[in-house]
Design brief:
Number of helices: 4
Structural class: mainly alpha
Radius of gyration: 15 Å
Shape: elongated
Helix content: over 70%
CATH class: Mainly Alpha
Strand content: under 5%
Distance between the termini: 29 Å
Oligomer: single chain
CATH superfamily: 23S rRNA-intervening sequence
CATH topology: de novo design (two linked rop proteins)
Number of domains: 1
C-alpha cells in the first residue's frame, strides 16, 4: 500500500470494521427498509472519509470528515431505535453506541489535527 492513502488512516479502517459489524448484526433482519438505512449510515462513515481524502484539499477533507461524523450520529440514533423496537439485543445496541461515540471522537481529533496542521 502507498503510504499516502486513505487506507492507511486508522479511522477509516475502524469505520470499515464498524460497517462490517452492522452488516453482520442485521443480516437476518426482515425489516428491509430499516436494515438498508442502518447499513447505509454505517457505510457512509468510511466512504466519506475516503472521498474527502481523495479530494486532495484539506478544506474538502475536513468537510467530508464532518459528514462522516454526522453519519456516526445517525448510526448511533438508529442503534437506540433498533434496541427500542427489539431489532437488536440490548448488549449489541449498546456496543454499537459505544463504538460510534468512540469513532466520532476520533474523527473529531483528526479534524482538529488537520485544522492545526494547515492553519
Amino acid at each position: 500500500m502507498n503510504d499516502d492513502t486513505f487506507e492507511n488512516l486508522e479511522v477509516w479502517r475502524d469505520a470499515i470494521e464498524l460497517a462490517a459489524r452492522v452488516y453482520e448484526l442485521f443480516r437476518a433482519c426482515r425489516d428491509f427498509e430499516f436494515r438498508g438505512q442502518i447499513q447505509s449510515a454505517a457505510v457512509s462513515i468510511s466512504n466519506n472519509i475516503a472521498e474527502g481524502y481523495e479530494r486532495d484539499s484539506n478544506v474538502e477533507f475536513i468537510r467530508f470528515l464532518f459528514i462522516a461524523k454526522g453519519s456516526c450520529g445517525e448510526l448511533r440514533s438508529q442503534s437506540y431505535l433498533a434496541k427500542r423496537v427489539k431489532l437488536l439485543a440490548e448488549d449489541d445496541a449498546l456496543a454499537l453506541v459505544a463504538d460510534t461515540k468512540r469513532l466520532s471522537k476520533r474523527i473529531m481529533k483528526l479534524i482538529e489535527a488537520r485544522r492545526a496542521k494547515f492553519a
